Every structure is written in structure tokens, then in C-alpha cells.
Amino acid sequence: MRLKHIELVEAILRTGSITEAAHHVHISQPAASKLLASVEAQLGYRLFDRVKGRLHPTPEARILEPRCRNLIADLSVLRKLAHNLNHDQQRQFRIGATPALGLGLLPRVIRKVNESQPRVTFDLYTHHSDELVSKLQTRELDIAVTLDANTRPGIRQIPVGQTELVFVSRTEIPNPVSLNALPDEPFIALDASDPSSQILEQALSTGAMTLPVSSRVQTHYVAFAMVEAGCGNTIIDHITARSMDKPGLYISRLNPTLRVPVNALVPAADPLSVQHDLVLDAIRVTCRTLGSAETHK
Predict the structure, then answer these.
(1) Which residues form the HTH lysR-type domain (predicted)?
(2) d(CA 57, CA 50)
(3) How confident is the model at residue 75, as a pLDDT?
(4) Which end of the chain has fewer beta carbons closer than 10 Å to its terminal beta carbon, N or C?
(5) Which fold is adopted by the domain 163-260?
(6) In whole angstroms, what is the distance from residue 149 CA to residue 194 CA?
(7) CA distance 59 to 121
(8) Could you tell me the pTM of the whole model?
(9) In 171-212, at which residue ranges do the beta strands (DSSP E only) sit?
(10) pLDDT of residue 291
């Protein structure tokens, strides 16, 4: 099977129609029919049966289907990568961050870079860590900033600072507050896959403690907004808490301090540019300013 055969077969598997598949692979319907007949003749068996005007895959096609889908997905990634490796493109420096850091960290990083290099321009994106890694691998991003400390194949992790977890409430409590002294009130927890949530859960487990979780959310700023709305208390990173702080809300440090690393991610095979160095320096300085609750009282 040649690549054009695989593209057509995958499109038919996806659409169930030779006409729609022809449109997806940018050929005419007669050409698609001829190409399908050709590949079936080469293979020596049918790939599709026509039932009530639709093409239904044969058992042989079902066996080939996952391989075809994987090849098409890999081809799509390859095409993106080849396109994004064109260094002659006049483009902006592309930074990605998790939602929490996109809100609390990136605006200050951009301002700091522009103070010294006003001609540097940026495209900013917020995604969760897995999607950030995927976009780095296809060179859709130049750098990403995350609280995730997991190592990823083909990705270089550069420590750039740290933040800490803080308790956010509508009720004033001691600052700092011990984990075992947190109020027995509804608690808004972060998703279990969030690195900050994992650090908190490990500390609670060590002390044989639990919190009265009333709801779980995926982002730090949603957790903060729910506290503001009176839904309960939460524990999130200090960078987000500081950026969203409002009158009537109280931010307390935790005892013991639970630190969360801030990491920059770049493709491991690519050299760092001058723009990378500028951004990394700005992130380090900004983390020192925003990351610790000691600087925000």
C-alpha cells in the first residue's frame, strides 16, 4: 500500500463515503473509486462492502484501521513539524503556559522583556501540560512554562523558579496556618492530575489528614473564583492567588511550606536563541518576585 492508498482508505473508514473521502484527500470521486479498486486488486481482497449507499469496512479493513489511523496522525505531526521548521518565516516568539501561569506569570514576563527589548513580539497560548508538550514537539511553540515536573521524551526541562501553595478563604485565619488546623469547611480541590494537587495530597497523606472536598476543578483560577463566590475554601499556587487577590479574601501561607517548582520546557534537540535567553531571565526574575508569599503580606 502506498501513502495515497492509506490516506484514501483512512478517509473512507472515517466518513463511510467515497465522495466525502475524495474531498478529504483532494481528488475527484472517479479518481477515488479507481484508486480504491487499484489497492483492493493489489491486496487481493475487498476493503469495503456497499450497504444502502454507504461503504462498510470488511473484517480485513477493521484490522488495518488502527494502523492506518496511527500513520495518518503521524503524517499530520510530520507535516506540522516540517512547516514550523521553516526559519525564514517572519513570526513572533511563541510562549505557552498552563492556565494558572498564563494568568499570573506571563503578563509580567512579557512586560519585563519589553522593558529591555521593546521590538520583541509574542504569541501567547494557554494549554494543559500534555498539550504544551505536544505543541513543543511539533514546533508550534518555542517555549512553555508549567508547574509540571514530570520528564518527557524529547523535551528539555529548565528549572526557572518556584512558587508555594497558599490557603484562600473568605474568613480571616492565622497566617501561616498549619495543615492540621485548616477549618472544617467545604473545600474546593484541584484535579488529582494537577501537580499542585499531588503535592498537597502527599503532605496530607503523610500527616494522615483529609479535607472536606465539596468539588474539584481543573484550574487554579476557577478554584479562586469559587472561593470568591462563597463556595468554600481552596489551596492553590501563590502566583495565581496574588494575581486574583481582592478585598474580602484572605491568603495564608501553609505550615509546613509546600513548594511547587516552576519549569520552562523546550525541545531538547534545539539550541536556545537570544529570545529564549531573554524570556528565561524574565521568568526567573518574575518567579522570585511573585513565587513566595513572604513577599506578599
Answers:
(1) 1-58
(2) 9
(3) 83
(4) C
(5) D-Maltodextrin-Binding Protein; domain 2 (3.40.190)
(6) 11
(7) 53
(8) 0.69
(9) 177-178, 187-190
(10) 64
Query: Which triple of cell numbers denotes residue 185?
Result: 469547611
What are the grid coordinates assigned to 175, written together? 497566617
Say which residues have a Cβ less than 8 Å from residue 222's Cβ, sequence separation at least 6.
Answer: none
CATH code at 3-84: 1.10.10.10
Tell me phi and psi for residue 169, to 5 degrees.
-150, 160
Cα–Cα distance, 93 to 272 (Å, whole number): 12
| E-strand stretches of the chain | 48-51, 54-57, 93-97, 122-126, 143-146, 155-169, 177-178, 187-190, 213-217, 233-237, 250-255, 259-267
Please, is 143 exposed, middle or buried when counting C-beta atoms within 10 Å of its C-beta (0-12, 13-18, 19+)?
buried
CA–CA separation, 45 and 257 (whole Å) = 66
Is the domain 93-161+261-290 a CATH 3.10.20.30 member?
Answer: no
**Stretch(es) of the chain classified as CATH 1.10.10.10:** 3-84
pLDDT digits over 7-39, tens only?
999 999 999 999 999 998 889 999 999 999 999
- Type of residue found at 209: M
